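Reply to dn_fold:

You asked what the input looked like. This is it:
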Amino acid sequence: MPADQAPPRLSAAFHRFWAGSLASNLADGVMLTALPLLAVALTDDPLAVAGLTAARYLPWLLFGLVGGALVDRVDRGRAMVAANLLRAGAVAALAALVALDQAGVGWLYAVMFTVMCCEIVYDLSGRAMLPALAPGAVDRANGRLTASQETAQDFVGAPLAGFLFAVAAALPLAVNSGAYLLGALILMGLPSAARRPAAQAREAAGRGSLRADIGEGLRFVYGDRALRALVVFSTAVNLAAGAQAAVLVLVVRDHLGVPAPLFGVFLAVGAVGALTGALLAAGLAARVGRFAAVTGGYLLQAVCAVVVAAATGSPWIGAAAWAVLAGASAVAGVLSGGIVQQIVPSGLLGRVMSVRRMLGLGMVPVGALLGGLLARLDLRLPLLLGAVVFTLSTLAVLRHLRRAAARADLAERRARRESPDPD
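and this is what came back:
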């Protein structure tokens, strides 16, 4: 349901946060392109190269819940700055090793693992802090952040890394480290009221162990039926998305008939769809309501997956359907994340988001394995699996999603009435 009041302008504090995130997203895009390029330059073993993916997602499985408990205890702004400084140092050390011709695949694993451990703290701190930075305008803020992430990573960071790598292998890593450092410097100026609300500081002062904090977060998720349903739903759709993404290159090349040199163009078309969806998400929610927009986003992804599966030898149809799928995914992701951010108390947000992220990202490699097995039988099967999972999962949580969206609408209206005009 649209709110009864126009959304407030985004504050100067949010724009500082946004600028810091933009620099960090650029660094992520460079790193996620440069490390695989380094890996294939160092080894021809496919398993060794695939190990980078394991190093990327393993930290969420091992430390996701601990990270959520930490960011609910500490100054979230300082946590983001510290995470970026550590990432900058780790990547700078790898750049030095590469420049001295001393780097091996093991060092790539170590740096990827370290950077992604820091990413847990950075990502959860930012998501937990966002409602305080953009009261009453969470969807708009999330949409802007997602759009800038797509732009910085896919349209700037990835091609920049490829160009710099062609000049010198250590060069993209040096730029990567500098971008993390710039992000840390920008984030140092965030106001303390947004970094750690007073109520949260009082709660943290009386807490016991991290284990007790993690247990409290898990009990909160389990005890809230709507939230529990959304977390299970997110886990299922991430499994399906992982199955689709794992064999996308084969689907594009062998099923749709796109020449291998144009695979990057196909990915860019999808990135344009995601960028468009992120920018339109808040306006769509204001027009038709959060519940309708999120539900439509997930069901539209199912339809588009079927279209791609049916588009044998039709690259133009497949590319158009994939772009719409990516846009629908961005809409659903921005708005469903905003629902969780608005219905969970600030002092618990880090832990709740960590449960959601750990389970969701933990299913990506499982889905990738399942997608690979299905693709051995038929390349269309991972796409059709995704369509079935998205449809059935959405229908299964429809009632809970409606209730959660209504609670988010109420929280947003309350925030708009109570929030002062931004500076």
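The chain has one domain: 12-195+209-418.
Hope that clears it up.
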